[in-house]
Amino acid sequence: MEAFRFLMPNPQDAEACLSIRKPGLCLHALRAVLASALCIFAGIGAPAQQSAKNVLVLSGGPGRASINQMQSSLHARFRGPVNFSIVDLENPRFYDDSYHEHLAEGLRSAYSTEKIDLVVAVMTPSLQFAVQYRDKIFPGVPIVFMSVSTPLPEKMWPGVTGVVSTAGITETIDLALSLEPDTKAVAVIAADKDANKDWLQAEHAELFRHRGTVSEIDLIGPADPEVLQKVATLPDDTVVLFQLYPTTADQPAFGAMDVLAAVAQRFPTFSIMPHVILGHGGIGGASYDPTTDAVLAGQLAARVLSGERPDSIGLVRNSAAHVQVDWRALQRWHISERALPPGAVVLFREPGLWDRGRKYFLLGLSVIFVQTALILGLLWQRAQKRKTEAELRRSEEKFSRSFRHSPLAITIVSANEGRYLDVNETFERQTGWTRDEVIGRSPVDISLWVNPNQRSQFMKRLADEGSVRDIEVRFRRKDGEIRSSLGSAELITVGGETFVLSVIADVTERKAAEVALASLSGRLIEAQEGERTRIARELHDDINQRLAMVAVTLKKLKQHVPATESGTIGFIEDVSASISDLSDDVQALSHRLHSSKLEYLGLEAAAGGFCAEISERHNVQIDFRSDAIPESLSYQVSLCLFRVLQEAVHNALKYSGVKTFEVSLATISNEIQLRVRDSGAGFDTTAHHGHGLGLTSMRERLKLVNGHLSIDSKPHQGTTILARVPLALEPSNSAVSSSPLSMSSG
User: Fold this and answer.
1) Where are the beta strands (DSSP E) in 563-707?
2) Domain stops at, among 347, 365, 394
3) Cα-Cα-Cα-Cα dihedral of 58, 61, 62, 65, to 10°?
4) Based on the domain organization, do 257 and 142 belong to the same domain?
């Protein structure tokens, strides 16, 4: 059982909590209210159970996955019930000493009425805070720490145990110098913070070991353009040890990742926390294995909860270094993978040619194999004509075994006369014509062509190119039924005589399934839109009205509170503001689910309104342009493009990392084109394969209106999404695409 609880003792603490932008104490306070309510209702009438142990987790960073692994390891060793309260200490004010007192007082008030059996500190800042304020917040409670690799005091604090992890400094520097043996200097780029002093001292000590071969250059300070000026003066044959880490989700206009992007372009870049630079141009580095660390910490926590004293347990060391490198960076700096240490993990490896095109290679090899077998059979047959009659029969039997019983329809047609020379059993089953009925006749004679006028175009293409591959054709069976097939044809010359060899597969059922699937997809999207409209109306007409009544009630309540109760009045005003914000969010959600502008004013007005609303809500700039959008545009096309616009803009907001976007809607070459562009992070389209749910949804919607979706994106070069929908559906007049393939060769 896991519970999230945090109580705020006074309005001042609440104000301090609300000032934190990242998910932290306030998020746990909200979870506490919900969890407490659920526990109260779930506990009514429940039988008495064994008293649960209460564990308070102080997290100093984004380590939720490690915390989950620690919890699983604890449960595997400790069978009793355990309640977990998780407090995220990571926020910009945490490194301010004056804030520590305020935070400690808030925690003391929150847990003053609850017995804490164990405190788990995740990362060094949390451990330092827990030890410093233990007597004030939870006196006498044992502490287990994890994800700590900085030097610890010679004499361990009483009642404290944990997992000491390798910092990976030695391994990272050795990795850098082994991969770049010509290195003359190591540039250390780090922030000037107290939290980095221990790391820097350890790095200086390690680099001192290499003083005879490399020199050290320290670039210590905040992430600003001045760092790039210093980087520009670094000598050649320099490697960078990067230690500027983003600390908040809301980064400044120029931050650590901008410095990393510029530095990694010029110098081989390594880090003792490789996850920060991997995928951003850095080569990699070495650090402790977080999974092993979490498992060991969970085992220690289980022993403490079982009654063992931390002082008698001692520290556990996780000394194994975990080396990770970026394959793309290795390629860029011409580093062989053979130079990596044993056990190194290579990430972002591009798939090889075989992996990218395996199914096409196998299909091509299969077709080539069948064609080669048939050709060899024909050559073998002609060669055996000069031999005895018995040898000829044996040769024909070998050829017939592969030809007659092939699962594909195979035909051999004379190129000069256009008449069938041979067909197999599959052809007979697919067309209803027997072999004896078609030998010596042409496809025109048996009316096999659905459109006989296409024959000349097909034969011209076959004569010009020598082969036709994977053509979808329609043919007429003997009983008049029209069916679809997919096949290939090729010109073969044997002994001065030219034949057309065709291989065909009946795909009528597959085509019918595709049509049914498209119809089902359309009905699902239509049902989804109907449900969106219903929910939007419920939100607008019911929920929003109720919120408005709550806001009015709070205002009336405020009028009846004496002026001397300033705290109560302030609390009511805060709640009123929250209700107002919630009402705005509900209203915005209603608009996203169902746009009345789209229904009554059309696509152009709805798209412009949506871009303006997103710009205001997310404090971004969207340059929206439209040109020559017809007023008679159908609602189906308008709704499709509007949903694509919503999905594309939300993806850009979420992943691009920039604040400026371009949206254009225009009529070009008899089609509506919607273009959404950003100049942000971009991505490798070959690696993503376009299988995200958002992209799949956009493609499925566009299929229903005969539209197309294209994506142009590269890492660090932005992304452009283009949706194109024709204004009118024109029938295809391609002769080859709708002609019978192998049958048409006659």
Assistant:
1) 621-627, 660-668, 671-678
2) 347
3) -50
4) no
- Other CB atoms within a 10 A radius of the CB of residue 125 amount to 21
Confidence of residue 604 (pLDDT cuts 50, 70, 90): confident
> Higher-confidence residue: 668 or 323?
323
Listed residues 136, 165, 194: the one ending a domain: 165
In the β-sheet with 467-476, what is the strand arrangement from edge to edge?
Answer: 420-423, 409-414, 497-506, 482-494, 467-476
Angle made by CA atoms 370, 373, 377, in degrees to the nearest 5: 140
Per-residue pLDDT at 449: 67
Provide the pairing of β-strand 497-506 with 482-494.
antiparallel
- Is residue 9 within 8 A of residue 110, CB to CB? The reply is yes
- Mean pLDDT over residues 91-117, rounded? 81
Domain shared by 173 and 158, yes or no: no
Cβ contacts of 292 within 8 Å, gap of 6 or more: 318, 320
Name which of 57-66, 256-265, 684-693 the model is least confident about. 684-693
Does one domain contain both 198 and 222? yes
Q: What is the dihedral of CA 387, 388, 393, 396, to 10 degrees?
A: 10
The answer to whether 745 and 413 have CB atoms below 8 angstroms apart is yes
Q: By CB neighbour count within 10 A (0-12 exposed, 13-18 middle, 19+ buried), where does 225 fall?
A: exposed
Q: Which two tokens stand for residue 215?
A: 């020199």
Alpha-carbon distance 316 to 200, whole Å? 24
The pLDDT of residue 514: 65
Q: Count of domains in the chain?
A: 4
Query: pLDDT (tens digit, 9 = 90+) per residue, 612-647?
Result: 888 888 899 999 998 878 877 887 788 888 888 888
pLDDT tens per residue across span 484-499: 787 788 888 877 788 8
Domain that holds residue 611: 600-734
pTM (two decimals): 0.42
Q: Are 411 and 446 in contact (CB under 8 A)?
A: no
